[in-house]
Structures
1.
Amino acid sequence: MTLKMEGQPFLLQLVVWACVIAFLVCFAVALYANIMAIRRTGVLINRAEDQDLSWGERQGCKSSRFGRLFVAEEFRSLRRLSYSAWTGAVLSYGSLLLLIFLFGDRASLRVDFVESRARIGSR
């Protein structure tokens, strides 16, 4: 299915572009929130007290530091930002797909093939 914008009502075009912009903004904010979560929890940093541990134990410590993101009160605003951004991205993308499904034209390969054969035959 494709959504051809020419010939569509202006309101539909406006809504489609609003969904596209909302998806891009929410996706960028979600990535930013994830990067901030990784930075603030210190998951990628090898700490001095972890130097004597084995590789598996160091990874376990990093995992438990990242797990604080989901339970610690200091990360509450970051959790809300991340969850709301991902929810907004999913909902705006779903709305865009729904609009394409409702107002889009079916693209059929057979119709395209028949039309191209008719054009070749008329030359």
2.
Amino acid sequence: MNEEIFTYNTPSSAKILRQINEYEFNRQWKNNLKKNNKNLFWGILFTILGVITIIFENYTFAGFFLGFSVAVISTYFNYMTQYKKYKKAFYQKLDREISNLEGNSKDIFLEFSPYHFSFKNYKSEYKFIWNEITYCILDDRYLYITANSFMNFILDKANVDKENLDKTLLYLEMKAKFKKI
């Protein structure tokens, strides 16, 4: 592929936006929720050990086990409260974003040049030089492009035609770094 500017647009809709954002939210929270469930397991285990040590009248160890279980279980419930709060805020923001999308242009414009990657939608436009760009493919379904390690662009492979997807991947292979998430 020679050094040319490659530009195309891909459609966006409320369904696509919701699907991609829900996938990203669940991907980010999945491991954290697993770890939090382990906290509950340890809390229950230490409660049982505390009760057993009380039965055997070893109150020093019982205090240790029960104190530790209270700390771990309270951490579990605190984390679940945070998760529910963030989930509620996430869906409120997503619903607001979807209502904004419905009133504006629905296409996303992508540009790949020898010097930069550009993204434009109805509310913003970004340009990044190639050494700031990493990418990966998630679940063999989403093309996940990261710029400056704080901004992500997610394309559903089903919404990009095969020719444009191949050219996009070729450009990313040549210019950006592959980074597994």
3.
Amino acid sequence: MIDGRVGIENKNETNINDLSVDDKDFKREKLLMIDEKRLEYRLKNLVFSQNLFNTWNRSKREFFEKYIMDIFWSDDSDKDRQFEEKMTFGRDFHTLCQRIFIGIQPFTSEDQSNGLIESSQVENLRKIYRLKKKYENTYGDRVKFFPEYKMTLDNGVFVIYDLLVLIFKDLSSSELERIDIWDWKTEGKEIREMDANSKMQTVVYLYACGEGIGKNVDKANISMHYYQPHLDNNVFVKYSEQRHKEYSEYIEKTIKEIQENRVWE
């Protein structure tokens, strides 16, 4: 679904922001480095992820370097190494959570005895397992789990849900009653409701769900959960028809601005 598109970035890489040209010459210098045909192709085939939108809002210059010119670099600083360690830890935890929801044992007693998995990680995974059992005990066969679910909309908006939970109205129907989006967070800082409501991830993930798999679902029956198992902190964001209208207008306006605006400053 995303073949031929550009814009899915490597979160572990750092874009170049410090250029040797003066700010006033930045636009002219950069446009000389890319021909019109290539520019049109890249703008037309962008994949609009939460990180792309964040980059566009933060710095047009960074956006151009990262998504149009494909210029990246990674340093070897302590900060960069610490970031990579956190990302590796997060990816490993997401993989173990995925195993739980597809019915594969995430770890063995031998893994524990050999020290391949920390005791704190074991407890966090038990919380995820209990979450799954709670859904099953409440909804039985009406609930379906889709971990690491990827979705691309016709307008190029792209998301990867850590977990998409679909609850159907009855066993004989394919009609959806409710959709829960779960996002696992492993960072130490506690996420607050105010933070969750203002995150670009919230905007993009709920919008994509409302336009995609949840198009025919009452938006009040779509919600997003940011869950930090190590803190047992579940921040709940409820969707609505009004929010969907606002998010749709923002996404569509921003995509149009990106594709039509040639000012990278």
4.
Amino acid sequence: MLGDSLSEGVGDRVGGAWRGWAALLADGLAPDGEETAFLNLAVSGALSGDVAGDQARRALAFRPHLASVVVGVNDTLRRTFDIALLARRLDRVCADLDALGTVLLTACLPDPGRMLGLPPPLARPLARRQRSVNAVVHALSARYGAVHLHLADRAWTDDRTLWSADRLHPGERGHRAVAAGFHRLLADRGLAHGAPPAPDPDRPPPTRAESLLWLATAGTGWVLRRSRDLLPQLLLLAVAELRHRTDDTGTGPLDAHADDALAAALASVAAGPGGETDGRRADPGPPAHRTGTNRTAVPGTAWAAAPRSASRTTPTTG
């Protein structure tokens, strides 16, 4: 799995470590009698540049059968946010994995401003950024025939039982819902052969006291780290929002500027990396050369095909 804290499993702690939706999904990929070797490359705080760099190199060396590429929220929280650069990075990663015959998993995500309940002048700039990221992900998912899960729908974001105390990461129930959603889509393509993840948590949700303790310790640290980078620019963006509100122009000019930047970003990757214009497969399905192999799961990359052993299992790594 390539990505950030969502794919690392933050919010679903088991035995002192993060588990998350990818590990839950991996358990349901292989048929009975076979195992899924699992390698998680996702790292909390990762940006699109991190995914396009070290994570992608390691994923390509693994030659995965399935690869999840879910990233972008951290990019929206940086003052250096550049939708065109993010689009080119993700296009390169998807193209390189697609060239291996890898089936891609992608997801669109909710904007952090709404999840955190920020006031409108602060939330709207983040919402524009996340909408742009989601539009890029939708375009690349269509190009590369990705298995795409919609996680920005209100039915998902408004259900607080799915979310952890920080409101930005799923709790155990949420991670199970993500895993079940991907499992359903993969099963429809004949790529998931085991049982889907159970929807109900193994453990009770954190108590209010535990949630407050997390927010007062780790949560506060997260906010402070992001504030040093984002807050000054976010305040300037909020001032621009208020100025357009008061001078009767509304947010139309700001929306138009974001739309123009998105259009340029999509145009920059329209021909694909290196300018290819050949069509991409609409539905990759299981490649023929994988017949008779086990599925190797790689978080952040996906499940690679490994030769079948005498015991009908593959090594499991994590």
